[in-house]
Amino acid sequence: xxxxxxEPRPLSRSHGACSITVLSMLAxxxxxxxxxxxxxxxxxxxxxxxxLLSQRQGRLSFSSSARARKQxxxxxxxxxxxxxxxxxxxxxxxxxxWSPLHQTPGxxxxxxxxxxxxxxxxxxxxxxxxxxxxxxxxxxxxVVVERDPTYAKASTVLSIGGIRQQFSLxxxxxxxxxxxxxxxxxxxxxxxxxxxxxDIQFNPSGYLFLAGKEQSEVLxxxxxxxxxxxxxxxxxxxxxxxxxxxxxxxDGVALASYGMENEGWFDPWLLLNAFRRKAISMGVYPxxxxxxxxxxSTREMETDDGRSVSLKRIHQVNVRxxxxxxxxxxxxxxxxxxxxxxxxxxxxxxxxxxxxxxxxEGTKLPVxxxxxxxxxxxxxxxxxxxxxxxxxxxxxxxxxxGLGGNYLGGLSPTEEEEPDSSDLEVDYEYFHEAVWPSxxxxxxxxxxxxxxxxxxxxxxxxxxxxxxxxGTHPLVTNMYFATGFSGHGLQQSPAVGRxxxxxxxxxxxxxxxxxxxxxxxxxxxxxxxxxxIL
Amino acid sequence: xxxxxxxxGRRSGVASRGTLLVPGRCWAHFDPSRLAQGRWAQRWxxxxxxxxxxxxxxxxxxxxxxxxxxxxxxxxxGYTQSMYGVYVAAAHYTLQQKGGVRFAGQEEWYxxxxxxxxxxxxxxxxEVPLEAVDASGSSxxxxxxxxxxxxxxxxxxxxxxxxxxxxxxxxxxxxxGDSLEELRLSGCPRxxxxxxxxxxxxxxxxxxxxxDLPAVGNRGLVRIMxxxxxxxxxxxxxxxxxxxxxxxxxxxxxPPV
Lengths: 534, 257
What we know:
heterodimer, A: eight-stranded mixed beta sheet, globular, B: alpha/beta, seven-stranded mixed beta sheet
């Protein structure tokens, strides 16, 4: 490769290259000499067998005399020294990663434009959209900080991966629909050259909500809203349910709403990896570390009616390295809090919620981790290929998993029964007491099911109104939120990532107006309730 | 200019499909590990792509053009629908895709020839329902199916060898639940068993062709489960022992219990 005119050729590199080739020639000559030496040795000790071929460390030597062996060892040691010297020389020369000052591997960059706290599907979707929408190449430096690259407790990978448009809020319906459109064209969006094509293994089997007498009015109203937004949902009477899904027990079921297109389930791990791989290929910096604090400055300002307000602006994010006390302050312009179930901890670090109750300063981020169980069971005569993700009027849900008669199911506990969310231990008693009876009542074939295994995961539960919190904070001027999805974050992640990127780069929401999900409603107390929460 | 950009040093790899360097191949058959060992021209192109912004942009523009072209071919024929009705619009769309259509009560098929030319005689069948659509080998996509889902009396649908028909498209076929009697999906590289599960909506289906579906796993089991959902449907192209592990046994060893 000929360098451009005007670019100085590094002289030391060419000299170094010459010296290396000379050394390698010397080493080559030495190995030739070494082969020749045993012949000399054998001549002086004619009583030794000169034809004895012995293999020493992969090299043939023609004699096994002591002197030849000593010379062999000497030559080998010399060769080892030469190899070490070559290695060291390569490291010292410019172009290698070696530096006399030791640097911890894996540190985030010292500055970034946007730091995304949390490497789940929302975090990586936002990172992807930020890079996709940047106006010039490398216009935005995005760093995604994730403290657990194994995703052992992340809500994303522990989810059952369902996607539906059957919500009661038009914004939620739009977010899910647009996410479905994104996932449909995912190869166009997220394919990386020379890598395997993206496949999230989507099952377009649909969702079936069963409603009793009391809930059928709500279901009908939701159906109208969903149809108005363009979702492909139909209402089914009990007779139609019986003819379509004969394995359902329609006692107590007054109405059902069945989503047939753009609804189903997929593999969340594949989606997370697709976003991650694509974002990294576009230049996002992944960082394995934990956000432990912020450095901010405060500015006192006055409102129109004379009250003083202190506005905070974050200047640096302290990212601590794993298993170490060392932290790197990352100077940044914006922080996006997408830490899922632990978003409130990140918010507390900047002092959101430190203030008298009832004031804006005292409004905490009401997102807390809520443990939910998912049980895998096998039933030999259960529903077949046509089984959608069925949600009973009691809240118990199940879906087919694969073709072998396995099903995933669960039930969201009531407020009083909320399990302790300090760990992810599974309560099997809950299955036997609460989930199995409801399942058996919904589908009689499930009376003879066999529980195979289970796992638990966290919902990033918004205790205020179970809907997302998306947007800026009124007092911390450069922190954005995209959290509190309460169980439907994964299915809305592509659209939410795009919304946040639009908010940051274009200044406002363009595709879906998510103004209803702002932080300020938590202070005002205006709940934006979602009635169809699983 | 290109060399200066190369010297600056940059990250490699931005948005594109692997098929760009392997033109003409179906996506499901694409084997990326062969790319690096591919023809020397392909490897050389890959190195150029990673090194030069210009080549990268050219690749991406080519890709964007291909996607734009596909969308153009699958545009919604709204104007034709408003002027001539849904059946003529669907027929026009199919003929543009180099397919064939047959109207109800007719014996002859209206087809486009290899070069894409077709006669406009089908326009005289305004308000005559379309009974059969043959879109085999065409570039029908999910968006293009928008033109076909309004056909309430469709009896025969041939989507063989369509490279862009995938599981999402199969879920769209549920609108033909009352009328469709014959469906051919042979040779579609993107159809998997997950999409075939959504065919249970087609209650009146009598003939289903599922031969040569490379992405479907456990074929025999899928056929059995589909036959459970669609008892009166004849499924061809899959044998019951497809996908089973064949164990070779020595003659004197007893069979496993």
